[in-house]
Amino acid sequence: MRNRNIDIFISGAGPAGLLTSLSFASLGYSVFCVDPKKPVTRSNDDGADLRTTAFLQPAKTFMASLGLWEKLEPFAEPMEIMRIIDSAGDNWPPVETTAKDFLASEISDLPFGWNIPNWLLRRTLLENAMEYSNLELKFGLTTSSIIRRDDAAFVYLNDGSQIKSKLIIGADGRDSLVRDKSQITISKREFSQKALTFIVTHEKPHKNASIEIHRSGGPFTFVPLADFEGKPCSSVVWMESNKNANRLLTLKPKEFEGEVNNRSCMHLGKLRVISAISDWPIISQLAKQLTAKRTALVAEAAHVLPPIGAQGLNMSLADIKSLHDLAKGPSRLTNVNEILSKYEQSRNFDIKTRVLGINALNEVSKSSIYVAQKSRALGINFLHSSPKIRQRLMQLGLGINEPN
Ligand SMILES: Cc1cc2nc3c(=O)[nH]c(=O)nc-3n(C[C@H](O)[C@H](O)[C@H](O)COP(=O)(O)OP(=O)(O)OC[C@H]3O[C@@H](n4cnc5c(N)ncnc54)[C@H](O)[C@@H]3O)c2cc1C
Question: Which residue has the higher pLDDT, 328 or 108?
Fold first, then answer.
C-alpha cells in the first residue's frame, strides 16, 4: 500500500476511533483508520482494558441508529438508580452519613444508562467493522505527518504510505499527533490523583444502582454488571490521592481486598476482588480548538476529564454524532470548511461546560477539608430535596440539554 485516495482518514482505533469509523462508513464514505495497536478483545489477554463504560441515554440512541446497540445490548447492564453517599468524618472504617437515591424513572421510562465492559465493546465494534467493505482498519501503522491543501489533505504513515483524504479525524487519544501537527494547543490540569479500577462480586444485589461513596481523595464508585458465577457483580472506580493510590497498589491481594471492603462502607456487603487492578492518572485536558484546515478532533484528542458521572466517552459520542449529522447531507464533503465550522460551534460550549463542571465536582469530592466535606453533604441533601432541581440535574448529567 503506497498511495491511497479516500474520503475520510481516521487516526486512532480506540473506542472513539472505531465508533467514528463505523459512523462514517454507515454514511457510505470510504474510510481508512490506522492504529499502531490492535485492540485487545479478550478479557484474559495482556493489555485488555478491564474498565467498563456506562453509556448514557443519548449515546445509546446514537448507537442504535448505527445498528450497533442490538449487538451491545446483551452485554449491557442497566443503571436505574444513582445513589450518592457521603461518608466523611474521622471514623475508620468509614460510615455512611448521608445517602440519597436519584431514580431514572423520575425523568423517563428508560434507565440512566447501560454499563458495558470495554474489552467487549472493542470486540463488538471490530466485528461490526467487518461488515463494511468501504471501511479499512489497519493495525501496526502510525500517523506520522500531515500536509493540508485547499482541495485535500495528505497523511503520511510510518511505513511511508501516503493517503489523500478530504477530511482527517484525530481520534488518537490524549497525546494526539493529529492535534499536535495541527498546532492546536491544550490546557491541562493534573489532579495528583489516580483511579484504581477492578471488578468485585458482593453479597447484596446491586439492584441496578450505580453507587458513589464520597469521603476524601475522590469517590469510590460501584457500577452494576451482570452476575458473575451466580454472584452479584459490579465494576469499581476508586479515586484516591497519588500517595494513597500508590500505597494501595503495593498491598498484597488480601490486604487490598480488606481496604476495598472498608472504603465501601460494606454498602453491598462483603466484597471479593475478582480481576486485576489497573490504575489511571486523573487529568483534565482541553484542546483550544476542535478543528483545523480539513481536520477535526474528537474524544480524548479534544477533551479528557476525571472519570466522574460517566462523561468521557459519552461526550465523545456527542462529538461523533455532531460530525456524522453534519456530513450526512447531499453535499458529500464538498463543503468541508462549513462542516468543520459548524462542528466547532456545536460542540464547543457543551465540552467546555462539562469539563469545568466535572473538574469542580472532583475538587469537592476529593476535599479533606472539614468545611468542604460538610458543604458536600449539605449540597447532596439540597440537590435532592426539590423534585425540579433533582430532575433537571439528572437530565443535565445525561447530556439532555432541553428540560422536558
Ligand atoms: C477509570 C476510567 C473510567 C471511565 N469510565 C467511563 C464511563 O463510565 N463512561 C464514559 O463515557 N467514559 C468513561 N471513561 C472515559 C473513557 O474511558 C475514555 O474517554 C475513552 O476510553 C477514550 O477513548 P479514545 O478512543 O478517545 O482514546 P484511546 O482509547 O486512548 O485511543 C486512542 C488510540 O489512538 C492510537 N494512537 C495514538 N497515537 C496514534 C498515531 N500517531 N497514529 C494512529 N493511532 C494513534 C492509540 O494507540 C489508541 O488506540 C473512563 C475513563 C477512566 C480513566
Answer: 328
User: In 3D, which of 359, 398, 392, 336 has the Cα closest to residue 153?
Assistant: 336
Q: What percent of the chain has pLDDT over 90?
A: 71
**CB of 14 closer than 6 A to ligand 1?**
yes
From the CA of 316, how far away is ligand 1's center (Å)? 10
* Contact criterion met (CB below 8 Å) for 118 and 40: no
Does the C-beta of 195 come closer than 6 Å to ligand 1? yes
Residue 354 φ then ψ, to 5°:
-70, -40
Kindly report the CATH number assigned to the domain that includes residue 343.
3.50.50.60
Cell of 191: 489532579
Into how many domains does the chain fold? Answer: 1
Q: Please identify, by atom number, the ligand 1 atom nearest to the C-alpha of residue 315.
A: 11
Give domain status of residue 214, yes or no: no
* Cβ–ligand 1 contact at 284 (below 6 Å): no
- Nearest residue (CA) to ligand 1, atom 3: 307
Domain containing residue 160? 3-46+119-188+287-363
Amino acid at the residue 163: I
Closest by CA position to 124, among listed 235, 236, 278, 19: 19
Distance CA 290, CA 298 (A): 7
Q: Which grid coordinates are listed for 364?
A: 469537592
d(Cα 301, Cα 199) in Å, to the nearest integer? 28
Query: pLDDT tens, 364-399?
Result: 777 666 556 666 666 666 666 666 666 776 676 666
299 lines ligand 1 (CB under 6 A): yes
Mean pLDDT of 332-347: 94
The response to whether residue 37 sits with its C-beta less than 6 Å from ligand 1 reads yes
Residue at 160 is within a domain:
yes
Query: Which segment, 205-219, 275-289, 328-342, 361-375, is predicted with the most confidence on average?
Result: 275-289
Residue 282 inside a domain? The answer is no
Q: Going by CA atoms, what residue is nearest to atom 35 of ligand 1?
A: 12
Q: What is the mean pLDDT of the chain?
A: 90
117 lines ligand 1 (CB under 6 A): no
Q: Stretch 154-162: mean pLDDT, rounded? A: 96
Q: Which residue has the least CA distance to atom 49 on ligand 1?
A: 14
